[in-house]
Task: structure prediction
Amino acid sequence: MTYDIAVIPGDGIGNEVVEAVEPLLIDVADAHGVGMETTWFDWGSQRYLDEGALMPDDGLDQLESFDAILLGAVGHPDVPDHVTLRGLRLPITKGFQQHVCKRPAYLFEGVQSPLRGYEGGDIDFVVYRQNTEGEYADVGGREHRGFANEVAVQASVFTREGTEKLLRPAFEAASERSGRLTNVTKSNAQAHSMVFWDEMVEEVSEDYPDVEVERLLVDAASMDMVRRPDEYDVIVASNLFGDILTDIGGGIMGSLGLAPSTNINPDGTYPSMFEPVHGSAFDIMGEGIANPLGTVLSGSLMFEHLEEDAVAEALWDGVAAQLADADAPRTADIGGSATTEAVADDLHDRLV
Ligand code: NAD
Ligand code: MN
Result:
């Protein structure tokens, strides 16, 4: 089987990690008899600065026939963040109905968590973040700029379809894992959207009697994520809360540079997209020292989605073995001094 993969490296360290990791993914897949053909798209902030848009008008049409999309990151010091996010990533996740943002947080052996007392495997949970609506819906407006009566409105949108398409895969995962699911909301303050969400969780939970549902408010959940991360298993959260919780996840797994992410179209009608959790990292871009492993793990999740489990496992286990090896090269964010390229090359030597 050969898969056609669209590659959008994007900006800053997004470029650096994708350039280092793409050849590794191709060669590891090939070693398992799986073909991966890539088409690169130079979309991102440089295109915006040159031509006024991060991607062409028919961008989604160009991507639609691919089996999956590999994204680096977008974000540029000279372009406002809301322009970059809304110019590329959000049109793809919304347009291709990628309702499910599944983000595992796993503390690998050989990586130091900033939390005391946790060892490899102790932290092992997965956040299912609603990825197409909620607080990131493009509904709102501004009036009377600069005047005393200035007002800005940013509405949240929660639909039955968008919520249910996130919850079902999360309950499936909980059922296969420990049978525990934590529902994170703010339904005390957000009495419309989050109470609706809670009711949806209750409704869907009736189809999964083996899954025990725990409810937490997002403020308490954030505190618990640093106090008792080992007690979480599957977490469901809205777009904004899931975004925030998964950066905490990246932090407690030792580095945001290790955290993988997926944007899954659960119906399989459009391609799904895979990317590290991190952004373009202005503070280290151009230095060649970004950790490429979050992107490798995202590649693993891409092959898992394509049902190429041998490739997915080889990549995941390869990263785990490299991190567990104290003599292996590692980047500065996890206590080493190696370059992005050296880490990817070492992984290549181990796996191919
Ligand atoms: P960031 O994730 O880029 O960086 C946060 C911190 O983590 C920085 O100190 C950075 O050096 C470090 N870091 C991140 N990835 C790393 C890696 N692979 N290796 C080593 N260290 C790493 O978040 P930010 O600084 O808030 O945002 C920078 C830009 O990225 C902004 O324009 C933002 O909008 C954008 N962004 C894009 C995405 C995306 O494309 N999906 C996600 C988050 C942020
Ligand atoms: Mn984020």
The radius of gyration is 20 Å. The chain has two domains: 1-99+266-352, 124-252. The chain is about 40% helix and 20% strand. The CA atoms of residues 12 and 280 lie 5 Å apart.
